[in-house]
Amino acid sequence: MPTTLPRPCGPAAGLVKGAMERTLTHVALFAALIAVLGLVPQITLATGVPITAQSLGIMLCGTVLGARRGALAVLLFLALVAAGLPLLSGGRGGLGVFAGPSVGYIVGFPIAAFVTGWLVERTTMPIGFAASAAAVIGGIGVLYVFGIAGLSLMLDKTLPEAAFLGMAYLPGDILKAVLAGLVTQSLARMRPASLLSRA
Amino acid sequence: MLTLTSPVETWAHRIPAGWKLLALAAATTGLFTLTFLPALTAVLAAGVVLCLSGGRTFALAALRLLWPLWPFIAVILVWHLWTRDLTGGTVILLRLVTAVALANFVTMTTRLSDMITVLQWLAAPLAPLGLPPRRLALAVALVIRFIPVMLDRLTQITESWSARSPRRPRWRVLVPATLAALDDADHAAEALRARGGAG
Q1: Whose CA is closest to A138, among A194, A187, A184?
Q2: Nearest C-alpha of chain B: how many angstroms from A24?
Q3: Which residue in B147, B158, B183, B190 has the most chain A C-beta atoms within 10 A of its own C-beta, making it the best mutation to test that interface?
């Protein structure tokens, strides 16, 4: 029976040597992961809507890194997009995307990652199921609230009309939430210690 | 990695990034209070003149950056043809295209390094909350460095799958890719620590 040291948690966790560097590199590497997942070729769904793994990256930030680090990773990614790197799916980027109709989704990204991570941190359910459920609530529920409000505002439509327009992405996003759960579960088996959302 | 900054040097490249961003914020806010069609047309015309002032190559590049908007333009056109409210539709489209074009203009005429300097200046008040500008700059550098590394790794994972299986890897590359990101983060954290920490 291997002895396990008690994990540092609470406010004292920041005092552990190298904890700040680990936070910094995890945030940076997951920001890069979101970018890379948006650059891989996209699949076109039966409805004709192209989907990329980018929003899966947002979900993974929450389920793997937890609320605070996950949201920071997404914010860092968005800062680089705003600075002019074409990292959003489809090679979009720059300040124009913040003036475009999908601005609601972009604003919702860090909040979605935070809610997803917060839910995974709080629940004691099996990690795979918990991560999928959290990704559905945070990465779809919360994200769509912001996204649809943004569509409604930018395209001057009522909320139900905007919701109708926004539903095109739903099948792909449900698929991605399930995948986020599966990936998180595999990671929990292979590197239990690296799953910061459950550390 | 390619940025969205235009290689064609224009007069606007020489204006400090902070002023351009301030002007953009003012212009965008003003734009969203406008509903008068001739006024919106005038602003769009000004935007077109702005883009043309950079020469033919620059204007064509600016036009290309507007391409991702076409699904929204198509949806709005169909919608307003259906509801027979073409004036309303034109106002929405003019406002949208102008806002995105102006924002793109600022992105195209500002170097990434200048944008990041502005970003650091904006983030300076966050220093007491545990985000000194130096740490932000380090995180930005890490993301930019690791995006090509992770893209290469993703290609390697896909190739090694293809060497062993006739099927396509699809979502199965996600677990090793995320795992590699977690391991890279740990290694980079150790390397930072060994070089005196991230300050």
Answers
A1: A184
A2: 7
A3: B147
- Per residue in A41-53, pLDDT (tens digit) is 655 555 555 567 8
Measured CA to CA, the distance from residue A74 to residue A143 in angstroms comes to: 13
Classify A92 as helix, strand or coil. Answer: strand
Closest CA to B112 of B150, B151, B140, B131: B140
| Tokens linked to B138 | 């380090």
B107 CB neighbours in chain A (<8 A) are 84, 93-96
The nearest CA of chain A is from the CA of B123 a distance in Å of 11
Q: What are the pLDDT digits (tens) for A15-39?
A: 456 788 889 999 999 999 999 988 8
Query: For residue A38, which of A53, A50, A58, A27 has the smallest C-alpha distance?
Result: A53
- Comparing A15-19, A134-138, B14-18, the range with the smallest average pLDDT is A15-19
> Inter-chain contact A24–B186, Cβ cutoff 8 Å?
no
Q: What is the pLDDT of residue B199?
A: 64
For B171, which of A39, A96, A179 is closest by C-beta distance?
A179
Does the pLDDT value for residue A14 go beyond 50? no
**Buried residues in A101-134 as b, exposed as e (16+ CB within 10 A):** bbbbbbbbbbbbbbbbbbbbbeeeeebbebbbbb
Q: Does A101 touch chain B (CB under 8 A)?
A: yes
Neighbours of B163 (CB within 10 A): 7
Task: Quote the DSSP letter at residue A50.
Answer: E
Q: Which residues does chain B have within 8 Å of residue A157's beta carbon, measured at their own beta carbons? A: 79
What residues in A contact B103, CB-CB < 8 Å? Answer: 94-96, 98-99
